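name: query_chain
kind: protein
chains: 1
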Amino acid sequence: MSIAKTVEFGIGDMVRTADIMILAGALAWGVLLCLLFYGGLWLTLRSLGGKGRPRRFLWLSFLARLGLTAAGFWAVLQLGLPAMAAALLSFSLLRLWLVPALGRSLPREKRS
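structure:
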């Protein structure tokens, strides 16, 4: 007797419950990676004003965020292409909302 149950959709496709859980986990992982990358960017930009070497700090932050995000997507890729597609989808969709929302909270420069 198999522990994995199947769900039947209208077209007659059979999807194992384990596959659905993997995709749900990949969606959540994509959200987490997006929050890590763009949240880290937001924190970097907020703390940039008081740094002695802002260019160096910006580059180090970028490389750290890029490395962590790439490692996270590589881990998802080990689960298969559908999981990778789900993680990329959730990353991209959250980015559409997150970047404008975080951008509004950054202090604006006063221009003369």
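note: Residues 6-99 form one domain.
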